[in-house]
Design goal:
This protein is an alpha+beta fold. It has a single domain, classed as Winged helix-like DNA-binding domain superfamily/Winged helix DNA-binding domain (Arc Repressor Mutant, subunit A), CATH 1.10.10.10. Helix content is 42%, strand content 13%. InterPro entries: ArsR-like_HTH, HTH_ArsR_DNA-bd_dom, HTH_MetalResp_TranReg, WH-like_DNA-bd_sf, WH_DNA-bd_sf. This is Helix-turn-helix domain-containing protein. Keywords: DNA-binding, Transcription, Transcription regulation.
């Protein structure tokens, strides 16, 4: 078989129950990741594809940021055709770290 395969590996998801607080805090400390989380928090589940976010980073950097967010239990992703859709795991993350997302999602006054 020649050529590139269009099959992508399914992303690995970590449940928030298995995430140390340091990992969660580090994921939320980066401004790009915080912007991704804010955009997800303001939209319906599975309505954002990876390429639809308003961040000024390339594809490789964006992929890295999503990997960090998955490892912190913040984001779940699924493939739908050629797109990878995202959802914020708000309920599960809030159960593990009550109030943390609420604090970081508040806009500066």
């Amino acid at each position: 078989m020649t050529g590139r395969s269009s099959h992508r590996a399914e992303p690995v998801h970590i449940h928030p129950e298995d995430v140390p607080v340091e990992t969660a805090l580090a994921a939320l400390a980066d401004p790009v990741r915080l912007q991704l989380v804010r955009e997800l928090a303001g939209s319906a589940d599975w309505s954002h594809s990876c390429g639809s976010f308003r961040v000024e980073v390339g594809k490789a950097a964006l992929s890295h940021h999503f990997g960090v967010l998955r490892a912190a239990g913040l984001v779940e992703q699924r493939d739908q055709g050629p797109k990878r859709l995202n959802r914020l795991r708000r309920e599960e993350f809030d159960a593990r770290f009550p109030g943390l997302l609420g604090l970081v999602l508040r806009e500066e006054d």
